[in-house]
Amino acid sequence: MTAVLRARQLGKKYRRGWALTGCALDIPAGHVTGLVGPNGAGKSTLLNLAAGMLAPTTGTIEVCGGMPGSGPAQLAKVGFVAQDTPTYAGLTVADHLRLGARLNPNWDDALAHRRIERLGLDPGQRAGKLSGGQRAQLALTLGIAKRPELLILDEPVAALDPLARREFLQDLMEAVAEHGLSVVLSSHLVADLERVCDHLVVLVAAQVQLAGEVEDLLAAHHRLSGPRRDPATLPADQQVISASHTDRQTTLVVRTEAPILDPAWTVSTVGLEDLVLAYMSRPAEAGPGRRPTLEVLR
Ligand SMILES: Nc1ncnc2c1ncn2[C@@H]1O[C@H](COP(=O)(O)OP(=O)(O)OP(=O)(O)O)[C@@H](O)[C@H]1O
């Protein structure tokens, strides 16, 4: 696998504490990778480290084979649209495209103009007078037209209406298919991620809890329901991610590569949203690789 992003022991500490710790990641090139996790989990911190906007406190991060933000050639390879979709309030839409053309060696001017026209944005309008969603569309257009190898998007669709969201994600998938673009995007909208991402990273409490190809992750997790039982009594190769109980029944989300043979369980598949929720509701100290249980008494 060619990694477009590789992190080892990556950590970032702000004054009030660690926003990211012990992060080891290999994100494959040519795919769309979704980054999910609760508020404050460290997603923006990770993306800002990848874009070279922040420097690591510990460990290393490499994107497109180089150190983030380390020079003009490296900067040209990586596009970054930050969470607040920054634009210059006093500049017009057309000014932004001119600036994009001047600053980016691989700039695709035809694509930028086509997109702006399709979105119905007035080239003469100042960015400060655009709606939040229109401003996000302008920032995303700049990111795509830059024609980077890796496009990093921090909650790119949060401000877009549902139709605009769908069309934008469609544009992204086309760019991946046509130009071999790699995308890493964070979002709270798991249904959107399900549509576009083939890889997933779940970040909770400053740590990577789960990472891999969506198909493999879904195949390795199962929902078990059956008579009430202490999750600690499960075989050691069945890692309990979440557990909920009624008086008589237990429902678990379990990770295992082996088949589940115990006839007491009714086994069903887990959808992406349930998988993400199971990891998000896991206690922080559970960490990857340990055998935690979230006991929810209904
Ligand atoms: N510039 C900063 N200075 C100090 N602390 C920060 C800074 N940026 C983020 N943090 C803290 O680091 C932690 C992780 O924040 P981060 O913005 O990376 O989370 P996030 O997963 O992107 O959250 P959200 O989903 O709400 O956008 C939080 O506890 C936050 O308060």
Automatic annotation (TrEMBL):
InterPro entries for the chain: AAA+_ATPase (IPR003593), ABC_transporter-like_ATP-bd (IPR003439), ABC_Transporter_VariousFunc (IPR051782), P-loop_NTPase (IPR027417)
Sequence ranges assigned to domain ABC transporter in this UniProt record: 5-230
TM stretches of this protein: none
Keywords attached to this entry: ATP-binding, Nucleotide-binding, Transport
Endpoints of the signal sequence: none
Gene3D superfamilies assigned: P-loop containing nucleotide triphosphate hydrolases (3.40.50.300)
One Pfam family hit: ABC_tran
Entries under CDD domains matching the protein: ABC_DR_subfamily_A
PROSITE patterns, alphabetized: ABC_TRANSPORTER_2
GO molecular-function terms, A-Z: ATP binding; ATP hydrolysis activity
SUPFAM superfamilies, sorted: P-loop containing nucleoside triphosphate hydrolases
Record bears the keyword Transport: yes
PANTHER family: ABC TRANSPORTER ATP-BINDING PROTEIN ALBC-RELATED
Protein name, per record: ABC transporter ATP-binding protein
Lineage: Bacteria, Bacillati, Actinomycetota, Actinomycetes, Streptosporangiales
